[in-house]
Design brief:
The complex is a heterodimer of chains A (299) and B (799).
Chain A: H1 2-7, H2 10-16, E1 32-40, E2 46-51, H3 63-69, E3 73-81, E4 84-90, H4 104-121, E5 125-131, E6 135-142, H5 147-156, H6 166-176, E7 182-187, H7 193-205, E8 209-216, H8 218-222, E9 229-233, E10 239-242, H9 244-268, E11 272-277, H10 282-298
Helix pairs in contact in A: 2-10, 4-5, 6-7
Chain B: E1 2-3, H1 17-27, E2 30-34, H2 37-73, E3 76-78, H3 81-85, E4 91-97, E5 106-107, E6 110-111, H4 112-128, E7 134-140, H5 141-144, H6 147-150, E8 162-164, H7 173-177, E9 178-184, H8 189-198, H9 210-222, E10 227-234, H10 238-241, H11 245-256, E11 260-265, E12 274-281, E13 292-300, E14 306-317, H12 320-325, E15 337-349, E16 354-361, E17 367-374, E18 385-392, E19 396-402, H13 408-417, E20 427-432, H14 435-439, H15 442-446, E21 450-454, H16 461-472, E22 476-480, H17 487-495, E23 506-511, E24 523-525, E25 549-553, E26 565-571, E27 576-583, E28 586-591, H18 607-619, E29 629-630, E30 635-640, E31 647-652, E32 661-666, E33 668-669, E34 679-684, E35 686-689, E36 692-695, E37 701-708, E38 714-722, H19 735-742, E39 748-751, H20 755-763, E40 765-766, H21 768-788
Parallel strand pairs in B: 4-7, 4-10, 10-11, 11-39, 19-20, 19-21, 21-22, 22-28, 29-38
Antiparallel strand pairs in B: 1-3, 3-40, 5-6, 7-9, 8-35, 12-13, 13-16, 14-15, 14-17, 17-18, 23-25, 24-26, 26-27, 27-28, 30-34, 31-32, 31-37, 33-34, 35-36, 37-38
Helix pairs in contact in B: 2-21, 4-8, 9-11, 13-18
The chains are: A alpha/beta (299), B alpha+beta (799).
Chain lengths: 299, 799
């Protein structure tokens, strides 16, 4: 498929294929899988005893306890289910910025496709939502291997446009996802910060495991401009004539404040956060992030 | 505040360049589509004021850098600011302009005077650009001459518009001497100055700086509170500055008053200058039809020899009829007859050498003839011409009084004066008896160039007094004493114990003993003008003269130091035979023997003719004294009121004969008049015209005074005024030498060509060094500011 080559890089896929995406929190899947479920099931992991009530299956009565205490208890085991992962890709105008091999939008799409491949590879379900002020495309969650192409296609036909309404989108996604799952937000987060944090908080309140990939271009992070420059806003209808060198220090300070705030709010809401540069190799960035996450989970 | 290089001040427009570059950069910015505008705007809002302030400071610093660089290159200079704070002191420029004729020395088309005028204009031009008030006083040497004399109280002759120098002038001399006297220099003053300078040229005078410095000292003392700068624009010739003791004193007094003195040498090294230093007519009888020798002297004032020098001689005279017919109102139009006398070629005139050439001139008609000598053109024109007026009367009248009844003495004398029928010696002997002297007045005797008393026994008292007056006023008297002479009378009335006419008292008659050696001459001649032709050993004529008798000098007489008696001939036995004494302006010759061949045979000897003619020339010398005058010297004419009408037409020379000027003047009673001999006086000299000194005799040439006698006859008098030849000596005093001679006077010596830079350094404080320091500091500040305003590209920055 023509679109798959744009966002699916075989070399990167090869390097990250050993990785796995595990939900840090409880997720609700339809199928049995490798992730913890809120329900009691048939797994080997003993969870607790409960007093027998009429109607319980007698196969679950722990007879050894009845023999010692003469009271009927049933054994309950953890249920393991599959993961429902939703990829939230920001395709607003600000994502179109970038002067390297990949701009932010392309980098985000590649990242999303790679994640989708990983999820599908471990038999979990993945869906994709692209948005700016509204949801542009909503690819439902599927577990089939060829579902990856649906996701790639949905990203390939999109071009960045309009502004971002982060809170509205996140609320909409939260409402449309009745089961708890993994929400992966890939965005530059250049939107109203308060609404962004409200949106993330909402997702967490709904029980979703949230991953935030903060995609930024090198020039946005380093601001290496010289000479008289007219900066024209991609999402804000405003411009600024200035000597960038004079503003660099203030800009970087302001940016750092923003990054710190985002990082802090993500931590407060138990959202995993990763700042990725578009110049950074995707596989390396992804590997680093997922490895760290897994290590934290296993602790 | 002013600049040395005014033209570079246009460079201040470059100070706008940083502003223009800033504006252009604002229009040339790169466009970037930017996502993170929020942070950019936040930074901008936070730092906007600082950014603007730094940019403004940077822009101003860059403008200041350009302005400082231009100011440094244009050499900003300023006067002492403290002076201007405390009331703005006036700067008074005193310019002393040498306008003697050596300043006409022309090299490569520009004379020293041209250079001096250019520098004067330059001084004024600069002064107009000064911030502080400026004044100019311009003094010419020629205008300040005899300033002290002019400042004496007036009294005497004056007419409506002019005041004669001889009469003094009203007001201080300095103010009339200055072309500009403390004239304020405003922005239009250079036009006024240019107009004035156009009329100023080198004169033909030989004036030095002394009078100018005296006037300057007086004028500068009047402006005590001003900042004074004196510029002496001259050629600094050896003649004026060779021994400047007096000038050093004057300059020292000027310098002590805090005045800054600048000497500017306006002349450049020049070619050799030849000058005619004299035209001397020979001291011989002058009469129409009698040839006369004239000596012309040419001097080379240069350091190299001049070769093949052409010396041209011309004569000019007015025919008697033309003089009589020309009305006094048109005398300047009268054209004289001009004849070329000779053109002489002088092969070589060595440096410093004076070459004399002798030329014979001849005028058939009587009158006052002009002889003009001309040299070819050279750097200094004024001394290439010289004039001489020689009076050629119809003849020289001599009075002969013979004591002998047969007038034998007179006969031989007249024969000597007119040896041949057709020969013309110019001498007109007038034989009169001794009684003629008794009734003769001084005026009667003044008509004779010499008087001969030939063995006259005695004279009455009045005749002796008249003769004494005659000789004292320049007449010549020859006394021959023979057997008729009353010795005691002569000793008493004519010798008067040495106070009378007679050189020595008379003694007894004596006979000259025969010579033992026949070859020994009876006459022993001393060196004297009369015997100049006979002294040569090769001339045997005088050796044949035989003296038999003579009169001895009175016994006991000895020449005293007070008496001016010379023995010019002796007898063989060493007795004085011919004696001479000067009496007043005239001369007396005393012969101790007869003129006629009574006591000697000299009158029969051919040498007597020569001696007689030479004696006449010698005795008439005082009467025909030439009147050499220099330009600038006033001409005073005294007329007898009884004989002349008071209206006088004076003619002054112009550049050409066609531009001669006539000045009508009325002679007024002279202060030297005596009762019965009233004199009228008319002068031609320096006059104050409209506040400025004008010399009426400042041009070399022939000056004429045309008068009418009461009988209606025209009387013409002519004078030749010549330049002082020494002024043509272009030898200069070197700057180091001059400074050494004027030590300890503090002054600065400039050459005209390099004057511009030097002068600027002296009239203000040049801030170039300070500006350079300021520029460096400003450049460092600009770099710091630019770094601070983030205009420097950071290492590794890509865009």
């Amino acid at each position: 498929m023509p679109g798959s080559k744009r966002f699916l890089h075989p070399e990167a896929i090869k390097r990250i294929s050993r990785l796995e995406i595990r939900a840090r929190h409880i997720v609700e899947g339809f199928l049995s899988g490798m992730h913890k479920s809120p329900y009691f099931g048939q797994s080997v992991e003993f969870l607790q005893h409960r007093e027998y009530v009429a109607g319980d299956d007698l196969r679950h009565v722990d007879w050894k306890v009845w023999a010692r205490q003469d009271r009927l208890y049933v054994k309950q085991f953890e249920e393991e289910t599959n993961l429902r992962c939703t990829l939230l890709i920001d395709i607003s105008n600000s994502m179109a910025y970038g002067n390297g091999p990949l701009n932010k939008y392309e980098y985000a799409c590649t990242l999303a496709c790679s994640l989708a491949y990983l999820v599908l590879r471990q038999q979990d379900g993945v869906g994709c939502v692209t948005f700016d002020e509204r949801i542009r495309v909503n690819v439902p969650i599927r577990t089939k291997h060829n579902h990856i192409f649906s996701i790639v296609d949905s990203l390939a036909v999109q071009e960045p446009s309009d502004k971002t309404d982060m809170y509205g989108i996140l609320r909409q996604v939260a409402e449309s996802a009745p089961r708890r799952g993994l929400m992966v937000l890939v965005s530059d987060l250049l939107t109203d910060r308060a609404l962004l944090f409200r949106g993330l908080k909402l997702l967490r309140q709904r029980g979703h495991d949230v991953l935030v990939f903060h995609v930024m271009d090198d020039e946005e992070l380093d601001f290496p401009f010289n000479g008289p420059t007219r900066f024209e806003g991609l999402e804000i209808p405003d411009h600024l004539n200035c000597n960038p060198r004079a503003l660099r220090e203030g800009y970087l300070a302001s940016l750092q404040t923003f990054l710190d705030e985002v990082r802090r709010e993500c931590a407060r809401n138990s959202c995993d956060y990763a700042l990725v540069r578009t110049s950074e190799p995707l596989d390396a960035a992804l590997a680093t992030f997922l490895s760290k996450r897994l290590a934290v989970m296993n602790r | 505040m002013q600049f040395v290089h005014q033209a570079l001040t246009w460079g201040f427009l470059l100070a706008l360049a940083p502003l223009l570059i800033h504006l252009i950069n604002m229009m040339r910015h790169r466009r970037v589509q930017w996502a993170a505008m929020e942070f950019l705007q936040a930074s901008y809002k936070k730092h906007r004021k600082w950014i603007w302030l730094k940019q403004l400071l940077l822009l101003l610093a860059r403008i200041a850098v350009v302005a400082l660089a231009v100011a440094m290159l244009a050499q900003l200079k300023t006067r002492d600011q403290w002076l201007s704070i405390f009331g703005g002191r006036v700067t008074h420029h005193f310019v002393l302009l040498d306008d003697s004729y050596s300043m006409s020395d022309r090299v490569a088309g520009e004379s020293a005077m041209d250079a001096a005028k250019r520098i004067t204009a330059d001084i004024v031009s600069r002064a107009t650009q000064e911030d502080s008030p400026q004044k100019l006083t311009l003094l010419r040497y020629s205008q300040t001459r005899d300033a002290e004399g002019r400042s004496r109280p007036p009294g005497g002759i004056s007419n409506d518009k002019t005041t004669l120098n001889t009469a003094g002038s009203a007001g201080p001399a300095g103010s009339t001497a200055a072309d500009f006297n403390a004239e304020p220099i405003d922005s239009n003053f250079d036009v006024t100055l240019e107009r004035a300078l156009r009329t100023i040229e080198a004169t033909q005078l030989a004036v030095g700086p002394r009078d100018a410095l005296t006037v300057l000292k007086q004028l500068s003392s009047d402006s005590r509170d001003d900042t004074k700068i004196v510029y002496v624009l001259s050629d600094f010739r050896q003649k004026d500055w060779g021994s400047p003791a007096e000038l050093r004193q004057e300059l020292g007094q000027i310098a002590r008053s805090g005045t800054e003195i600048h000497f500017v040498n306006c002349s450049r090294s020049s070619e050799p200058n030849l000058g005619i230093v004299a035209i001397d007519p020979a001291d011989e009888t002058r009469a129409a039809g009698v040839p006369l020798f004239v000596n012309v002297k040419v001097k080379n004032f240069g350091v190299r020899s001049a070769t093949k020098v052409q010396l041209k001689l011309q004569s000019m005279f007015y025919p008697v009829d033309d003089v009589a017919k020309t009305p006094l109102t048109a005398v300047e139009t009268l054209k004289g007859h001009v004849d070329d006398i000779a053109t002489l070629l002088i092969d070589q005139v060595g440096p410093g050498e004076t070459v004399t050439r002798r030329v014979q001139i001849y005028f058939a008609q009587p009158g006052k003839h002009v002889v003009e000598a001309t040299l070819p053109e050279d750097p200094v024109e004024a001394d290439n011409h010289r004039y001489c007026v020689i009076d050629f009367p119809a003849g020289e009248r001599v009075l002969v009084i013979d004591g002998r009844a047969d007038e034998l003495n007179a006969y031989f004398l007249k024969t000597a004066f007119q040896p041949l029928e057709r020969s013309n010696t110019g001498i007109r002997p007038d034989l009169k008896p001794a009684t003629f002297l008794r009734d003769a007045t001084l005026e009667t005797l003044n008509a004779y160039s010499a008087i001969y008393l030939l063995d006259v026994p005695r004279l009455d008292g009045r005749a002796v007094e008249t003769l004494e007056s005659y000789v004292q006023s320049g007449g010549g008297l020859a006394i021959f004493v023979g057997p008729e002479v009353n010795t005691s009378y002569y000793n008493q009335a004519l010798y008067k114990e040495g106070r009378g006419l007679l050189p020595v008292p008379l003694g007894l008659e004596a006979t000259l003993a025969p010579a033992l050696d026949a070859s020994e001459p009876d006459l022993d001649l001393a060196s004297h003008a009369i015997f100049s032709f006979l002294k040569s050993e090769t001339n045997p004529l005088i050796r044949g003269v035989k003296i038999e008798r003579y009169r001895r000098v009175a016994e006991g007489w000895k020449p005293t130091s007070q008496q001016t008696v010379k023995i010019i001939a002796r007898t063989r036995d060493k007795s004085p035979l011919i004696l001479e004494r000067s009496f007043g302006q005239g001369a007396v010759l005393q012969f101790q023997t007869t003129l006629a061949p009574e006591w000697n045979d000299w009158a029969k000897n051919p040498s007597f003719v020569v001696v007689a003619l030479k004696m006449q020339s010698y005795l008439a010398t005082a009467r025909r004294l030439d009147d050499p005058r220099l330009v600038g010297v006033p001409i005073d004419l005294k007329l007898e009121a009884s004989k002349y009408l008071p209206d006088v037409s004076l003619v002054t020379p112009g550049e050409k004969s066609a531009t001669r000027q006539r000045i009508e003047r009325r002679a007024l009673a002279s202060s030297g008049s005596t009762e019965g001999n009233e004199l009228l006086n008319v002068s031609l000299g320096t006059a104050i015209v409209e506040g400025h000194l004008r010399g009426e005799t400042d041009r070399a040439g022939i000056y004429e005074a045309w008068t009418k006698t009461t009988k209606g006859e025209t009387d013409l008098r002519r004078w030749a005024l010549n330049v002082d030849p020494e002024e043509g000596n272009l030898e200069q005093v070197g700057s180091a030498d001059l400074l050494a001679r004027l030590d300890p006077v503090k002054l600065k010596f400039h050459e005209a060509q390099q004057y511009q830079q030097d002068d600027v350094a002296s009239t203000g404080y040049n801030l170039s060094t300070m500006l350079l320091l300021g520029l460096v500091l400003l450049l460092v500040s600009e770099q710091v500011l630019a770094y601070s305003a983030s205009y420097h590209v950071a290492p590794g920055a890509s865009r």
